[in-house]
Design a protein that fits this description.
This protein has helices at 17-31, 37-57, 63-78, 84-95, 105-111, 125-133, 147-150, 157-167, 182-192, 222-225, and strands at 5-8, 116-121, 144-146, 175-179, 195-199, 214-216. The chain has 231 residues and is α/β, with parallel strands linked by helices. It has a 6-stranded parallel beta sheet, sandwiched between helices. The two termini are 15 Å apart.
Length: 231
């Protein structure tokens, strides 16, 4: 078998983050008396959030700051008198309860039972632990490595050092990272000198010059890669 250890991203790889985020935002705004808040401010929130997540990947902001800053900017822009810190806590609480599996996630993990499986995610430890723990994948992974606990985020080499130490991995050639983000998962794996698999279900164009070892449209396509020789 070519790969013995598979490192999975969580959001939009194993779990559908788009659905989870939409529902958690709705519940948080509902709690604050704005039943149409998620719909009214979704576009602006997404723009703000995307900028801050890029900043996170570049080490310009930490995760705790990001969690509050996105709402602070949103509320300031729209003149909403809501405390960003308390709203962020409410949102994250709801997010931890939102569990929506990506197609093929359970099947792939079950059929990869001969490999060591772990998670490496840029996210809040409590949220990701709750979401995976409440899913059918709860007993699938040796470790869930979150950037919040590691002190580094993908694509920084630090989170991979942390993960490899935790998993006692010594041979990078035996490990494969699977994720949907070119700038986070794939660039991180490349920076660390390991093979990468870009999960690209929506067939996005790759104009970034980041070249994954493999590209798949369905998670089940991963089964044809594991144990196969690289072409």
């Amino acid at each position: 078998m070519k790969y013995e250890i598979i490192l999975f991203d969580v959001d939009d790889t194993l779990l559908d983050f788009r659905i989870s985020e939409k529902k958690a935002l709705h519940e948080a705004f509902l709690e604050y008396g704005l039943p149409t808040g998620a719909e009214d401010y979704a576009g602006c929130y997404q723009e703000i959030s995307q900028v801050l997540w890029r900043d996170l990947e570049q080490g310009l902001i930490d995760l705790t700051e990001l969690g509050v800053e996105r709402f602070k900017r949103l509320f300031l822009k729209h003149g909403l008198d809501i405390h960003a810190d308390s709203f962020s806590r409410a949102y994250l609480g709801y997010l931890g309860k939102e569990i929506h599996l990506m197609p093929g996630a359970v099947e792939v993990c079950e059929k990869l039972g001969g490999c060591r499986l772990a998670i490496i995610t840029n996210g809040f430890t409590s949220v990701q632990t709750a979401r995976i723990g409440g899913s059918p994948l709860s007993h699938t992974f040796e470790h869930l490595i979150a950037s919040q606990e590691a002190g580094f985020q993908k694509p920084d080499k630090g989170i991979f050092d942390y993960a490899f130490s935790k998993l006692k991995i010594t041979d990078k050639s035996k490990a494969l990272i699977v994720g949907d983000s070119l700038t986070s998962d794939i660039q991180g794996g490349l920076n660390y000198g390991m093979d990468t698999c870009w999960y690209n279900p929506h067939q996005k164009d790759n104009n970034l010059g980041i070249k994954p070892t493999y590209e798949i449209r369905k998670l089940t396509d991963l089964l044809g890669i594991i144990g196969s020789k690289q072409v």
